[in-house]
Specification:
Blueprint lengths: L14 H8 L3 H4 L14 E7 L4 E2 L2 E4 L10 E4 L9 E8 L3 E8 L15 E9 L5 E9 L7 H4 L15 E2 L10 H8 L3 H10 L2 H4 L5 E6 L1 H5 L5 H5 L5 H9 L2 E2 L5 H4 L4 E3 L5 E7 L2 E4 L2 E10 L2 E6 L10 H8 L3 H9 L3 H6 L3 E6 L1 H5 L5 H5 L5 H9 L2 E3 L4 H7 L1 E3 L5 E5 L5 E2 L2 E10 L2 E6 L7
Helix pairs in contact: 5-9
Organism: Symbiodinium necroappetens
InterPro entries: Adhesion/Biosynth-related, FAS1_dom_sf, FAS1_domain
Protein name: FAS1 domain-containing protein
Length: about 450
């Protein structure tokens, strides 16, 4: 048995009557619950008792608006196109109840909205009733402080802001029975390939752990976009390490809600590499995958759905340098010093990589001398002075101000007169490799 009630977002005292005049599905959706202006913050409404597993849908009505949300616009959580306008917030629980916060954004034009989904906020509280059902109470956490009115919307016409979010609230028997990330994905029915990949990679137990985790979850359709045979190949036991690398690149070891994701430029993943985050025309992208649904709550974190599989850098430091074509002297020096295997197989490491032009700035004959077998130790010391243990990104390096190298001596990082390592200019930063990160310098660093 599923019973549905709806939350109507109202602007004036007479909006209840106006709703009946402009909406043809008032009887279908259920009773009026909250009024935007007339209902005080903290008001509670008891919705009734439902069987565990029932789904509650909510709606709000714009009864005095224009532009992106004209008068009579009704937005419902059970309509896919309307889910842009709702966001699920933090889920919390006490001994008796599970609380889920639902936020609504009433201005969806990127030029005028702050997209904080706090124009109407309600808490959905579900309480277990032994062997029977759930008692659900809606509490108005904040009476709307930004009212949809004709003057406000007159300034924000144009297309709606496409911020995808999941806004269906499902009752559960009690907080302790809430699904973790893996079970939530399996129950959704559209992440079968992801679930199979997690099992093949041996990551199921990890993602069923305490967390918190944020998972950028590719759908089955997203995996299907990979070249033919890719998924089948990745699922083979001999490719387990590669599969683990890819899957952990989709996981952030923190609970990052959509409202926080849009404030980021990057996110550090369990893989160790950073994924790029960008907002384009109101849509959020992780690398080149678009986020199509957000804030799916699980007991140990949050799921954001993406439309493509994101792939971490698979080339190691040496391979990455080779493909660039401007580090031939550095690679030759690493081989001569016996450090090439280390740079290929160990990690994570950070390399301040001098270009061929940087080596050419050394006094005539210096490079040729260093490459001689009898100078192998001296060459190794110079190269070790360019390598730091751990994956240290540029912002972290600048904040630290110095870094201990493999040689045991520190290099100094500063931004005075431009970003520098000692006296060498940083000309490119944060070049990802499978086992570390590369920062390009325009001079060879020489230990004192």
């Amino acid at each position: 048995m599923t019973k549905t009630r709806s939350l109507y977002f109202m602007g004036h005292e007479q909006d209840g009557e106006m709703f009946n005049a402009v909406s043809s599905d008032a009887n279908e959706l259920g009773a009026f619950i909250f009024q935007n202006h007339g209902t005080a913050a903290g008001t509670t409404v008891e919705l009734g008792e439902f069987e565990a597993g029932s789904t509650l849908h909510f709606a709000y009505l714009v009864t005095n608006g224009s532009g992106g949300a004209p008068t009579g616009s009704l937005f419902r959580t059970d309509v896919e196109a309307d889910t842009n306008y709702f966001a699920i917030g933090d889920t919390r629980s006490d001994e008796a109840s599970l609380f889920t916060r639902l936020g609504i954004e009433d201005i969806r034009n990127p030029a005028h909205s702050d997209f904080d989904y706090n124009d109407l906020i309600v808490d959905v509280r579900t309480t277990a009733i032994p062997e029977i059902a759930m008692k659900t109470i809606i509490t108005g956490a904040i009476a709307s402080s930004v009212l949809i009115t004709a003057p406000a919307l007159a300034q924000c016409g144009g297309s709606d802001y496409a911020h995808k979010s999941n806004a269906t609230v499902s009752t559960v028997a009690n907080a302790s029975q809430g699904k973790d990330i893996v079970d939530t994905a399996v129950a959704a029915g559209s992440f079968n390939t992801l679930a199979a990949a997690l099992k093949a990679a041996g990551l199921v137990d990890a993602l069923k752990g305490d967390g918190p985790f944020t998972v950028f979850a590719p759908t089955d359709d997203a995996f299907a976009k990979l070249p033919a045979g890719t998924v089948e190949s990745l699922l083979k036991p001999e490719n387990k390490d590669q599969l683990v690398s890819i899957l952990t690149y989709h996981v952030v070891p923190a609970n990052v809600m959509a409202k926080d994701v849009v404030k980021l430029n990057t996110a550090t993943t369990l893989n160790g590499q950073r994924a790029d985050i960008e907002v384009r025309n109101g849509n959020v992208f992780v690398d080149n995958a678009q986020v199509i649904k957000t804030d799916i709550a699980a007991s140990n974190g949050t799921i954001h759905v993406i439309d493509s599989v994101i792939l971490p850098e698979s080339s190691n430091v040496v391979e990455t340098a080779q493909s660039a074509g401007t580090f031939n002297t550095l690679i030759a020096a690493a081989k001569a010093a016996g450090l090439a295997d280390f740079l290929m197989n160990e990690g994570p490491i950070t390399v301040f990589a001098p270009t061929d032009e940087a080596f050419a700035k050394l006094p005539t004959g210096t490079v040729e001398s260093l490459l001689k077998p009898e100078n192998k130790g001296k060459l190794a010391d110079i190269l070790k002075y360019h390598v730091v243990n751990g994956r240290v990104y540029a912002d972290q390096a600048v904040k630290a101000g110095s870094a201990a190298t493999l040689l045991g001596k520190d290099v100094t990082i500063s931004t005075k007169g431009g970003a520098k390592v000692n006296n060498a200019n940083l000309v490119a930063t944060d070049i990802e490799a499978s086992n570390g990160v590369i920062h390009v310098v325009d001079s060879v660093l020489l230990p004192s």
